[in-house]
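input
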Amino acid sequence: MSTGPQPDTSQGAAAPGVPAPPPPPMAPGPYPPAPMGHGVPAGHLPGPFPPAPAGHPPQPWPPQPVPMAYALPQYPAPVVPRPPASAGRLRRLLGFNTVLAVLLALLIGLVAWQNVRIGELSAALEGADQRLTELQQKDGDRLKEAENRLGALEKEVGAAFNVEKLAAAVLPSVFRVEAGRSIGTAFAVGPKAADGGTNLFTNFHVVEELYQDGGRTVKITRDGQRFDAKIVGVDKLRDVAQLHTTAKFAGLTVAKTPAKPGQQIIAVGAPLGLTDTVTSGVISAIRETGYEEGPMVQFDAAINPGNSGGPVINGQQQVVGITVAGYLNAEGLGLAIPIGDACKLFTVC
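output
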């Protein structure tokens, strides 16, 4: 048996040829550094190492890793000072004030924009009112001008030929004449007679038979009433006779100027004894040489026997002639004595 050194089995060393057991786990550090010069190679951890095999030079053990998970010293953690509670409230208050200021600025901007728009709309409305006022003024001027024109037209229409108006004005001065067996027409003319009565004109041929027989009184009829009238004078050549009645009637006005072709007229009489008959027409011509030694007024208003002695009236309600005759078997051919000739013969106009 060998008396050489024996392995120390008490330390857990394995026999030669037997794998060495794993080293016991190391307790967690820290580990103090091994003192230099104590036979521990630099970089090796201290501890029991198995002896080198016989006949081999000693070999260094492979370096062992050094655990790096050292526990840190139990130093107190740095304390960060907490801001006071008033500082947080101040920051929140500042944030709220900032939001409020932004909202207030937006509101002020909106109000300012609305004020600008209101100003623009007010200016536009004022301009529209001004234009409306101008238009109303122009319309008022136009309306006034139209009213003036309408008034002028009404005057013209009023002055125009109106048969109804003419008839209403002259009929109260026109009468049916009964002279014996003859029937004709007479009309009041001029101002009142000297005795307050009325002067009248008719045709001589209406009273001729009675006059030739010595009669001087005829009957005139108005609205169903009969009045006596005296034959004051006659002109056989111009076929005119003057009558006078004590009854009071308005006399017709005599035209100052002669009738002219184209003038509108009405003829009033009692054709066939039918009182208050009105026909209308125009002056057709002035016949310088004609019936009974003098000029005659030709007109186209319808006349019949009984119209003789009746007035021919113009648009101004003035007498322009005395109806004297009409052509038989003809239409629109009537003749009248110019009123001026009758007024020359009898000064009653």
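quick obs: The chain is about 30% helix and 25% strand.
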